[in-house]
Amino acid sequence: MTALLEVEDLHVEFRTRDGVVRVLNGVSYHVDVGETVAVLGESGSGKSVTAQAVMGILDTPPAFVTRGSVRFHGEELLTASAERRRRLRGDGVAMIFQDALSALNPVFTVGFQIEEQLRTRRGMSRSDARARAVELLDLVRIPHARQRVRDYPHQFSGGMRQRAMIAMSLALDPEVLIADEPTTALDVTVQAQIMDLLAEIQRERHMGLVLITHDLGVVAEVADRIVVMYAGRIVEQADALSLFRSPGHPYTEALMKSLPRLDSKGTVLDTIKGLPPNLLRIPPGCPFHPRCPRAQDVCSVQVPAQERLGFGRTSACHFASEVLDG
Length: 326
Ligand code: SF4
Ligand code: MG
Fold this sequence. Notes:
By secondary structure, this protein is of the alpha/beta class. It has a single domain (5-92, 172-324), classed as P-loop containing nucleotide triphosphate hydrolases (Rossmann fold). The chain is built from twelve helices and twelve strands. The strands form two sheets. An eight-stranded mixed sheet has the order 6-7-8-3-9-10-12-11, sandwiched between helices. β11 (307-310) and β12 (313-315) form a beta hairpin. The longest helix has 18 residues, at 188-205. It is globular and about 65 Å long. The mean pLDDT is 92. Bound molecules: iron/sulfur cluster and magnesium ion. Residues 250, 286, 288-289, 292, 294-295, 299, 304, 317-319 line the site of iron/sulfur cluster (SF4). Iron/sulfur cluster is lined by residues 250, 286, 288-289, 292, 294-295, 299, 304, 317-319. Residues 5-256 form the ABC transporter domain.
């Protein structure tokens, strides 16, 4: 069966004055119909860049896709015409961003921004588009949608703006929604509400949902599958239940140890020592070895292959099976 969205062996580099920055080094994942995939990693791990490559909006620094494939219903997007990409944007695959304030246009009302898509892409009349915009704001539970549709983005609170952006992304009924850190700028209660809303919309519409996050806690309850990225590579992929039960990569283990737990109130959380690598100088061997509590001699020399751990699980660690056993 063809996946809804497939990213395969994606390599991206930024050619900067300081040298070539290899931001993606062979990233592969897929999203099926009705599936929620969380892409997890620290900043600079390549999670947003992957999404930008999928959306065809990879323009920050001089970015080059040097290898790989991005397919939507089996259709190659990387070589598709600009017109084809534009048509698929919002319609096939839509994206919402962390910072709704900069993603929404401040000089137009929220309603206008939704209506404009409906009028230009769906040929709707002004009044039909307005009615649909109100429905969409209602769907994302913006109170008094009929009035708020006339408000400007700055008249919304942070959480309401994020809801408005979700409404906007749903206007063309996308089959896949990519949410890049959709709740990072919000306080914890609002974060949970937005995540619940996304999960509910995903279920109702049977969409593919990609949740990009640095916070495992935020996606724990909604993700079907989790893709863990480090230094432009995928280090582990697993269904969410298995991953939480027993991580198969030391980096995932470390991320889980840094999660606050209900049963350990007051204890100091383990944070991961050291920093993510400078992508201009990715460490040889396993890129995680300078920070890995399980590292052996081989780790600084040999790049670990993707080890299959069954049921679609993979881990890029020389000692994956041992990690899995605890
Ligand atoms: Fe740690 Fe070695 Fe596994 Fe890398 S390959 S994660 S350094 S044990
Ligand atoms: Mg990012």
